[in-house]
Amino acid sequence: MDHVIGYDLARGLHIIAVIAWIAGLLMLPRFYAYITVSQPGGELETAMLKAARSLRMIILTPSLIVAWAFGIFLFGTYLTGDWTRPPGDTLAAVPHWFWLKFLLILGLSGYHGYLSAEGRRIAKGERRRSEKFWRLMGEIPFVVAIAAVLLATLEP
Ligand code: HEM
Question: Fewer Cβ close by (within 10 Å): the C or N end of the chain?
Answer without folding.
Answer: C
